[in-house]
Design a protein that fits this description.
The complex is a heterotrimer of chains A (681), B (179) and C (308). Chain A is mostly helical. Chain A is built from 24 helices and 8 strands. Classes of the chains: A mainly alpha (681), B alpha/beta (179), C mainly alpha (308).
Amino acid sequence: MIDLLTTTNIFLFMLASWLVGALGSLIFCKNDSLAKKWGSSFAILGSIAGIICSYLVLVQNSVFSFYIYSSFPLLSFSFFIDKLSAFFIFIISLIALFSSIYSFGYVKHFYKKYNIGYLGFFYNIFLAGMVMVASAHNLLFFLIVWEIMSLSSYFLVIFENKEKENIKAGSLYFIMTHIGTAFIIVSFLLLYKGTGSMDFSIIKNNIGMISPFIRNIIFILSIIGFGTKAGIIPLHIWLPSAHPAAPSHVSSLMSGVMIKTGIYMIIRIFIGIMPIPPVWWGVVIIILGSISSLFGVLYALTEHDIKKLLAYHSIENIGIILIGLGSSMVFWSLNIMPLAILGLIASLFHTLNHAVFKSLLFLGAGSVVSETGTRNMEEYGGLIKYMPQTALFFLVGSMAISALPPFNGFFSEWMTFQSLFAGIGALSVSARWAFVFGAGSLVFTGGLAVMCFVKVFGSIFLARPRSEKIKEAKESSLSLHIGMGCLAFLTLFIGFFASKISNIISGVVKNLGSFSFSEMPFSASNFSIRMSDGFSSLSMPLILISLVLVFLVSYIIFSIITRNNKVKTGTTWDCGTTLTSRMEITATGFSRSIISIFSGILKPTKQIDVKYQDENIKYFQKSKTVELGVRNIYQIYFYRPIKIFFIRISDKVKKVQGGNINAYILYIFLMLLLVLFISIM
Amino acid sequence: MFKFLKKLILTQKTVIDFQKSECDEEILEVGKKIKEKIRKMFSGSLAIRAVDTGSSNACEQELTALSNCYYDVERFGIHFVASPRHADMLMVTGPVSRNMKEALIKTYEATPDPKIVVAVGNDAIDGGIFKGSYAVLDGVHNVIPVDFQIPGDPPSPKKILCHLLQILEIYDFKNKNLK
Amino acid sequence: MSSIILTIQLIITPVVSPLFIGIVRKIKARLQNREGSSIFQPYKDLSKLFKKDEVVSKDASWIFKFSPYVIFSISLIIGASIPIFTNIFVNNLLSDLLVVIYLITLGTFFLVLSGIDIGGPFGGLGSSREMTLASLTEGGLLFSFMSLAFLSHSTNLFNISKNIYSQSIFSFTPIVLAFLAFIIAMLSETSRFPFDNPSTHLELTMIHEAMILEYSGKRLALMEWASANKFFIFLSLGANLFFPWGMYFSLGVASLLISFLLCFLKILTLAAFVAILESSIAKFRFFRLPDLLFTSFILSVIAISLIV
């Protein structure tokens, strides 16, 4: 009983501290420094409370709920924190903690230019909104907090409102998120109509009252609705514009955590509430996930704006999470429960891992962008000498997202592969090919992601500076280091203790009701993890220890053998010419080969603009500009036809409202006749 | 494909047998006395980087001929490399034109110690047929320190091979007593 | 006894791998009607390089300076985790096929970064080409191993070689298809024909060599040695996973020596095949190579469809 009260109190304290932080920074908006300190400190306080609360629920099993009812629907709160919600609240609070620590130093760049009070206000409301989304238990309350989260993130996206493209990005984000919300509302209305209640538990009990046909419609509508928030292709077009526009610590939250709330609701509705799904639901999710991951990483390769590239990588990782989720649903519908648990654990683990390394990468990108003043990777270079610690943290993040051992990304991709392999081995013919497709796209995604991050790290930090302003970059301040360093350490930590953490996540999955009574697909000790049927086994600590040991031993042995040799410093070998920074590889040049190989999917474009010495004769060229790009096929083939269709219909309907009063009186008269007619019948 | 492989296997051996006793000329050693320490280093394996500083390409043709199936310099452990960082020996040809002076110095500095510099051909030794021209610097020794010289315009591959083996002998302290 | 075998397994890869590079070079030289260097020439090259000084560019960062050690240690670890001449380490937790493939990718990651690091004109080009090919090779490599894994119901490499040993004749076709896919992936990963010419001097044709152009002295020796290790690792994977006859499970000294000899002969055959292939065909144009890699991927998918 004491435990229960304490957990609820900590939860309420967390929300309250964010609320106080929001209001306070708005009140103190005249004083930049005080607003920043107030807003960030209360954000940190709330995050710590969130971590403690979710830890208590996850490890000590104290599930709790909290209701306030009132006659005004807008004032009734309904929270229910089971282990799934607690897991997502943990992820949100963890990333919020480090982003808020980072913002202590980072927000200084916005002093005198923008209103820090508004930043603090919307930031804290955003955090509160995300946590409430992850814990809401009532359809209407969920929609309210979903809207709070979307609106506050919209204001954060357009925070730097002096740049025109940020406003455009904000509008696109606003429209897309509300289209998604519209689909969510329709599916929620179908749920409400079918089961007669708005409360999640009651819906779950009465779900049998909804016919399978309506359930399929709810599935399609929810996938579109939550997929817009999560960033599934082709609903992703807002992601690459909105995430770069926001300030970096907000981008890290949006990319690392906010899109996961879409995943959370997909899990909640389809695995928590719905009964056993038909097989095609899981297959569709696997196919959507495979396409998102492959296309996401291919588009990332074409980008040379660093934050846009990271946004495309979020799309790729959402695809990987969906592959795990889809395989879990397929196994569940075929009643192979241990493998269903495996798929869901892989999906949730990758959610955690992606949140950690993606926010690390965004924070690193933020420090680089704020020190150099440009987001264009072609102007960077050689920053490892000016910003060595940031380079180290960014390298750790790059290795984690490329799924390289011994970091955490490798373990969740290994687990996703295991669930796919199990599916290929255990399933019948038709569903099996979806798994083969998923495995194929996952392996190519992994390879292309390594290539993309070699390009990113190489263009930003290695070689020599490509423009003059880079040479004035300085190392970032302490709070930025603490934020990034803790996240980098966390990737290694999670990688090392991966088996133990997968045990905790299996507890989360088993709490979901449908999966409570099945056996585990693997046995995980502190040191290693083994599949139950003996198919695979893995030991993450062993990889790290052996790598470090062999490296040290070989370094010592070879240093001793060659201790008499001297090392001279010279210039880079340049075949005898003078070396300039134009001789290095550029980000565009690095990925041009792979873009040509995949030109069918990416449709690269090339625009050449020539200026002549004499415009009449056009013989000697003065200058030539080549612009390499990628055609935006989603706008051309998907959204523009829809837009044109709707405009055409609107034009036709517009004729009804002609402005002629006599016509309006006729309409009223006709409607009156119709209503009388119906009421008589 | 199989006809091709059959032809490869059945062709007679054409590699010239090369004994060190066939060499009749004495080696021209112009550099400082080679230290004891590095005598044994290059006996088993030598990496050569050829630098062309504006030559008439006659010496290059002869250097290329060293790797063919008649002279086959690779059987002595000598091979040509692309980067001066990998090289132990720089074989410089040509009379060092003005434009190549900077490049030659950079190549010399890019080669790690210990290294040997050999001037191949009369052009590289003192300017050869280009001596006295305004466009050349009259020999490699005016730009970088030279250890050995191989005279000839151009020296035949047999002569180059002969001198190379004698250079290796200077570095092969062990076999010197057996000669 | 098992600790002795563990030690042997750890040091056999770096000790034996230069020998196979020498054998390949000798066979190629003989096919060119030359006499060629002796098969122990790579050892002499390595020992000379360890005695030489180094020149390091002033643009280099710690990545350039530490990559050779990292790549060399990774090749040692992989060499210790794969079945080379014996099958007895079934419980080796590092022998999972995904771990081996991703460790290879880790090595490639650092190699490519060190190519970009010095900011020369050739390193970046080599890195771009290497990453383009490596990202596409992983598919064929993983799927060819996966087809074997489905045949033997395990992803542990030692288990795979043990179970392939006792397969029926009906699984011959998928094993051969998977082997063809593996050969293509192996040629790509070890930078052999038709993907890359390991003895070229023209920077425009280099892929692997371009990234190590800046190294000298002991770091160059470590990079060349790691590349030889990788070649040996792929040869022994090809010989022992797909054709595991001759590997002994017992621990007697005589049976170990016989299995050692048989495995050596198998790896020698595979090395001779690579050498003859290099002497007969030309290097492909760069943009024809992805077609070859996708072919390897499709061959493995066909092999999987025949098995499950």
